[in-house]
Amino acid sequence: MSATYIDAIHQAQRELLAERDDVFLYGQDIGGFGGAFKATKGLLEEFPGRVMDSPISEDAMVGMAIGAAISGMRPIVEMQFADFSSIAFNQIANHAGTHYYRTGIPVPITVRLPCGGTPGSGPFHSQMVETLYAHYPGIIVATPATVSDAYHLLKESVEIDDPVVFCEHKFLYRWLKTSEIDPEPLPLGMARITRPGKHATVVTYSAMVHEAVRAADRLAKEGWEIEVVDLRSVKPLDMDTVIASVARTGRLLALGEGFPWGGVTAEVVSRVVAEGFHLLDAPPLRLNSKDTPIPYHPDLWAAHRPTPESILEKLRELLNL
Amino acid sequence: MPQVPIIMPQLGESIAEAKIIRLNIAMGDSVVADQEIIEVETNKAMMGVTTLCGGTVTEIRAEEGVEYAVGSLLGILEATEEEISRTGAPTIGEQAEPELLDEGEEGEEGNLHFRQTEQSYEEPKLVEPSVRGLPVPAGMKGAHYISPRMRARMDELGLREADISAIAGSGAGGRVTVEDLEQFLEYISDWPDSAASPMRLAVADAMRRSWSRPLASVGLPVVLDPVLEHRSRQNPKPGLTLYVLRAFAIALSEQPATAGFLIGEKVVHPRAYDIGIAVQVEDGVVVPVLRNVDQLRVPELAEEYGQLVRKARNRKLTPEQAQGGIATVTNFGTFGLKWGTPIPLPNETLILGLAAGIKQPRWSEEVGAFVPVTETEICLTFDHRVVDGGGAGLLLQRIGTLLQAPEKL
Amino acid sequence: MESSAASAPIISGRLDTDLIRRTLRVMIISRTLEAKLSSLYKAGKIVGGVYLGTGQEAFSASLGCCLNQEKDIFAPLIRDQAGRTGFGEPLIEATRTYLGSALGPMRGRDGNIHRGRPAERRPAMISHLGTSVSLVAGMLIARRMKGELAEVVGATCVGDGATSTGAFHEGLNLAAVEKLPIVVLVADNQFAYSTPRERQFACENLVDRARGYGVTGREVDATNLFECLAVVHEAVKAARAGEGPQMVVGKLLRLCGHGEHDDASYVAPELKDSKLGRDCLEIGIQQVVDEGLATSDEVDLWKSEAAEEVQEAVANAQTDPAPDPYQDDWQAFSSKGINS
Fold first, then answer.
1. CB within 8 A of A53, min separation 6: which ones?
2. Is residue A26 within a helix (H) or strand (E), and if so which, with residue range?
3. Looking at the complex, does the CB of residue C15 fall below 8 Å from at least one CB of chain A?
């Protein structure tokens, strides 16, 4: 029995609904239709009244979830695409994110954001938004790269009392599968060494973990051992694991699918330079997508975001510095 | 014959899969372009999959009632070259078939998400994992580039850049890595060693700092007989070095910029012609400073000079007595040396070395024969940022001239 | 849409008399407190700003007083001191929040009207207008899922400006789709800060929008206490009875600036002199005394009692400790061990 990334998300939600009376799902087309990506398929039938179709009102969807959360529920909001969460940005950043600090009452909402690019999705169905939410206080941002993490991190996100923005990568939905869910998950807030190495560290998250591993595999044939760190969540950011890895390798490439101005990769580089300057053998490098909207044509799209080829190129530059 | 794929299309932006309801084709069927050949059901609607061109169905991979991901290969048509060129349909080989990727599975080479038909990247530069075979790193970076990581390890061990110059680097561009350093330290760990004295470390530090500048040396033979003759008539006899010290100070006072010190875009000139004397002591050198050498004559300086040298040898100098010099004289001739390239103190631009006086024949026009003279070499090392070879040569010439009239010194 | 209620007190009987008397008292307390807050601001004691509800007390207090303090939800906006007091918010919470006391509900982390106790069904507003509508909807949906919605009403207030926001539209539409027992008061007070209503919306009357949302709309002369109480009471009752979302538009004029930093010089004298510009507190007192529901002496007593209560709340808050930046845990997460 194998499970894909989307199966894991479906299964986690199903179990959460079964295990906890306070969990409910809210989003566009998630009821009888089962969601644009089928993450809630069959759940309305199994849990009547607890899987609710929403109007196309991202702001109100999250506002409603906040109200329910401070009234004892644990809502999971599905944004149809992460890109549309910009409409709900105010409720997530200004309302949910500030609530505990202001009032002492936590807001246990989980906002699922199908993010990242797939060929042909274009500028408004491909974006990575983890940086936006991580920038604001009070919001946890999970970015699972594996099927097991998608399952465990989603379950943990709902258990957490604070707002969680759960960035699930659309490309991984059906392209990634595993034979069994890891029975011993790492807790949220801990990064994973996906691939050990000693010559350079790639710190990344979400779908880019797999691209980094591919680039590392190719360099391995030339005698280079590249360590790949999967952050798993960009907030909290597990600097202990990152610093320990850079201490082993002395070189850092921060890799992300998001836009290049600022963001998670800049944060990683900034913290490594500040906390671990003495560990560095070379200036840390960053690799992100290009600083343009995400293009539609698959060839443009593939060149817009980091690929194994561009990661390889960047790693060669890093190893030459 | 070219093969044209039948692909599960993207039937709506949020559609990830579709179910085959009915196959309207069979193996061997002839189809025309834009013919609806497969009925599929998406989450939203019933739709038809159409052909990209006309041809013959040669392969059917799809089964009725099964859901397929968008992009899945459902079947294959064989089409004529003319039909391909007429319709512009893609053929297999141009368009990759998407595959599910297992976690940890060794996937196909290329982009995980989309196979690029044309790589737009430059040919990657190959990095040699190591550069070996040279005793000293030869790359542009080499031992001169010390990474923050290497610097931190060196600080931890109390090492300076000069200490690692012996190591052939194996890093990028021949750079010395922490691993190289550890190996080197391991290699020398069996060798006998002893602790360096504080004096040794102080000299080492001063010389390291001095050496960060572009230093050059020039030399001039000088006949010492007039000085030796003058000296023999004095009581007590002034040291030979004192005559040189005096000539040096006078020459400098005539050309103050020569003793200047370059700081940024300024040359800082001497305020007083206080000259140091290098005195060899156990495991090091100390440099007492004689004041206002340009203004006092040799007999007037003699006592102070003698006291300073004695104090220096006995290590009794006060810190003030070793400060404020603008240049130094070192008499390495006392060791019988014929020439040398002394290194100025880090805060001085010049050092004047005095070699051993050696008796040798010199042709005399007056006598019309070789006559014996005592000749030495005075050697000047200078910071080439401040002084050029010409300036240094003129300075030496002037000193040589002054030493021919010792009674005026 | 139902027509406006008459200006006569259509609520009769002993309980109703109590409600009317209590509402007027709440208005007096609110006006007294706000006058004091304004004074503290002008004395340099309050930082940031002071936002008053002068002229809106009858409308706001009617809602606060018609709600059930034990189970209803009230999400006020910036001009709802009267509603807050009517719903049972202690005066000390207002003064502590304005003065930044470490002991107040916001502990100096937020100020002025951005206060509340969500656990007591009094959400703390954020500055972004319209967000409270979906919030209250969510609080109601939670109760519905837990089987605790019976007899519960959720209420929130906005002004005419907030009705221009997407959040208001999304929230009210959502509440309507879910047929929630929510009451939304729209104080059509002629200005959003300085922007007059003709630059805010083009429909003739905001209450017309209710039909578009599929919610019951009511309109009221919000300078008239009796009318406010009658109409708001009716709306709350309808929501409680399961008749779905209720929108009440109160017509009035803001009798103060946007905040106390604003002299509202942009308000035309003719508008101030119009029917909209009447003071609801003066009218309310007149109505109550005329109907014999209280004597002038009683009203005067209420005023002096209000002055004392306000003075006590201000005095207590002023002696409170200030928040200590060295003691704040600077934690935006409730979960322990989450480091950003």
1. A27, A28, A29, A30, A31, A32, A33
2. strand A23-27
3. no
Q: Give me the amino acid identity at B273.
A: Y
Residue of C177, C335, C336, C339 for testing the chain A interface, max A β-carbons within 10 Å = C335
Q: How far is CA A141 from the centre of its chain?
A: 7
ipTM of the complex: 0.93
Extents of the domains making up chain C: 14-318
* CA-based torsion, C267, C273, C276, C279: positive or negative: positive
Specify whether the CB–CB gap between A20 and A74 falls below 8 A. Answer: yes
pLDDT one-digit tens code per residue, C2-42: 444 444 445 545 458 999 999 999 999 999 999 999 999 98
Task: List chain B residues with CB under 8 Å of A147.
Answer: 103
Judged against a pLDDT cut of 60, whether residue B129 lies above it is answered with no
| Number of neighbours of residue C117 by Cβ within 10 angstroms | 17
- B146 has pLDDT over 60: yes
In order of their start, the domains of chain A are: 3-178 (3.40.50.970), 192-320 (3.40.50.920)
Give the separation between CA B408 and CA B18, rounded to whole angstroms: 110
- Using the Cβ of C37 and the Cβ atoms of chain A, whether some distance falls under 8 Å is answered with no
The pairing of strands A140-142 and A176-178 is unpaired
Please return the burial class of A97, using the count of CB atoms within 10 Å of its CB with bins 0-12, 13-18 and 19+: buried
Which residue from B315, B343, B317, B340 is spatially nearest to B328, judged by alpha carbons?
B343
Q: Is B367 on the interface with A (CB under 8 A)?
A: no
Class (C level, CATH) for B200-408 = alpha beta
- Token pair for residue C309? 């209560």
Predicted local confidence at residue B176, as pLDDT: 87
% of residues, chain C, pLDDT over 90:
90
Confidence of residue B134 (pLDDT cuts 50, 70, 90): very low
The answer to whether B114 contacts A310, with C-beta atoms less than 8 Å apart, is no
Which residues on A lie below 8 Å from B13 (Cβ)? 121, 125
Position of tokens 């009511």? Answer: C218
Residues of C in contact with A100 (CB under 8 A): 332-334
Q: What is the pLDDT of residues C234-257, one digit of tens each?
A: 999 999 999 999 999 999 999 999
The C-alpha of A181 sits at a distance from chain C's nearest C-alpha, in angstroms, of 25
CB atoms within 10 A of CB A42: 13
Distance CA B60, CA B75 (A): 4
Contact A207, A169 (CB under 8 A): yes
Q: Which CATH superfamily is domain C14-318 in?
A: Thiamin diphosphate (ThDP)-binding fold, Pyr/PP domains (3.40.50.970)
The pLDDT, as a whole number, for residue B170 is 82
Do B129 and A309 lie within an 8 Å CB cutoff?
no
The reply to whether B3-87 and B142-187 are identical in fold is: no
- Nearest CB among A60, A69, A70 relative to C174 is that of A60
Q: Does B174 touch chain A (CB under 8 A)?
A: no
Nearest-by-CA chain B residue for A147? B103
Q: B379 with B215: CB under 8 angstroms? A: no
For domain B142-187, give the CATH number.
4.10.320
User: What is the arithmetic mean of pLDDT over B128-150?
Assistant: 52
Looking up tokens 């005066």 gives: C91
DSSP structure string for B64-115: TT-EEETT-EEEEEE--HHHHHHHT---BTTBPPP--EETT----SS-SS--
Structure tokens belonging to residue B85:
């060129």
In tens, the pLDDT along B309-331 reads: 999 998 888 888 988 899 999 99
Polymer length of chain B: 409
Whether B255 contacts B249, CB under 8 Å:
no
What pLDDT, on the 0 to 100 scale, is given for residue C10? 52
CATH dotted code for B3-87: 2.40.50.100
